[in-house]
Amino acid sequence: MKGSKEMITTKRLQLVPIEIKYAKDLLALWSDYEVVKYTYNPWCKTIEDCKARIEHIQKFIDPLHMNNWVILHHNEVIGVAGVPTVSDEKGEYGLYYQLCQNHWGKGFGFEVAKALVDELFENTKATVILADAVTVNPASMRILEKVGMKQTHLEEKSFQREELVGDLMHYQLTRAEWEESKLYQV
Predict the structure, then answer these.
(1) Spatial CA neighbour of 25 closest among 44, 42, 47
(2) Edge to edge, what strands does the sheet with 92-94 contain?
(3) Contact 84, 126 (CB under 8 A)
(4) Is residue 179 a part of any domain in this protein?
(5) Contact indicator for 177, 150 with CB cutoff of 8 Å
(6) How many domains, the chain?
(7) Which residues form the domain of 118?
(8) Taking the model in full, what pTM does it have?
(9) Model confidence over 17-55: pLDDT tens digits?
(10) What CA–CA distance (Å, rounded) separates 90 from 125?
């Protein structure tokens, strides 16, 4: 996942670095209430809003790693995902993913999360990957658990967005846990 990496490919998907040229395609994702309601990201109402969001994301791209991606399926933008640096000193990264609603339930979330986890541990000095999910979003929790992440703690009523209030489950996957899980994969 070095900065020069241009694409991550899975069985069905391609992950390419997030760029302004995808702003129009990402409007459908970032303007969808159901997609963003359990995030802290503001809704995008225009292509200009999307461009501003992409520029903001690009400010935080780790120069040593490509860590924010657009998800393509048959060259169609279906979402975004990433592993942003939390603490370079500690080797801590986060994990996030967002998919367009019409692509939910097809296994793409797991496919992306697994690809990013594997890519990060195989090609960086990452020691731990962190994530969280609002507990009323069980699909996201299942994805995190399926890639091997373990629940670390629950923060009750810590997620707030407009009228939504929810409990936030925190997860982590250490390099040692990931390496051990690889021993049992066929």
Answers:
(1) 47
(2) 85-87, 92-94, 128-134, 164-174, 150-161
(3) no
(4) yes
(5) yes
(6) 1
(7) 8-183
(8) 0.91
(9) 999 999 999 999 999 999 988 888 888 999 999 999 999
(10) 9
Phi, psi of 22 (to 5 degrees): -95, 5
Is 140 part of a structural domain of the chain?
A: yes
The torsion of the CA quartet 48, 7, 2, 4, rounded to 10 degrees, works out to: -80
Does 88 map to a domain?
Answer: yes
Question: What's the pLDDT tens digit per position in 87-144?
Answer: 889 999 999 999 999 999 999 999 999 999 999 999 888 999 999 999 999 999 999 9
Provide the CATH number for the domain around residue 134. 3.40.630.30
Structure tokens at 177: 């846990």
| Residue 3 within a domain | no
Residues 70-80 have pLDDT tens digits of 999 999 999 99
In this predicted structure, what is the pLDDT of residue 163?
Answer: 80
3-state secondary structure string across 132-161: EEECCCHHHHHHHHHCCCEEEEEEEEEEEE
